Amino acid sequence: MRAAAKAHGAPKVEVSVDCVAYAPHRFIDVQDWDVDFAVFSFYKVYGPHISALYTRSASLASLSPLVHHFLRLEHSAYKLQPGGPGYELAYATTGAVAYLRSLTPSGDLREAFGAIAQHEQTLVAPLLAFLTHPEQRARGVRVVGEENADLSRVPTISFVVGGQKPIRSQDVVKVFDQKGG
């Protein structure tokens, strides 16, 4: 992203990534991505309702403090915390990491997210095969986004049926349940 923006003449580029939808499915590596800011919510990875914000040191230094003027926190992440999270929420985040590490014998987070991705791929493949079948295409079904179940795709699937009046999600679920799906 940074290279693309610079290629289009942007003099200074700061890259911010919202990882909320990505975090439950794939490993987040902010250094590899070369981002200045990244945020996600722990509840998306089986933790409490608290978020985390990564800031590159140079980017953090350029931000104005949100705390009282008499606190000298210019070079600290605390300068963005005018209050503080509840201790129980902050500590509960460690349970999410422990859970994710428990998913593989090695305890490696990259491996854990690899295992999650493999499992999701097996769950998504039959649905995508159904939605992209020629019979469904003839009925006007179109998948929004990637149509394959490889590891480049997270398992959130959206589709539309052309020529049909809108249907409420709960009605779709009801029909699937009635058909044993």
TrEMBL record:
This is Aminotransferase class V domain-containing protein. Pfam families: Aminotran_5. It comes from Sphagnurus paluster. Transmembrane segments: none annotated. InterPro entries: Aminotrans_V_dom, PyrdxlP-dep_Trfase, PyrdxlP-dep_Trfase_major, PyrdxlP-dep_Trfase_small. Residues 6-179 form the Aminotransferase class V domain.
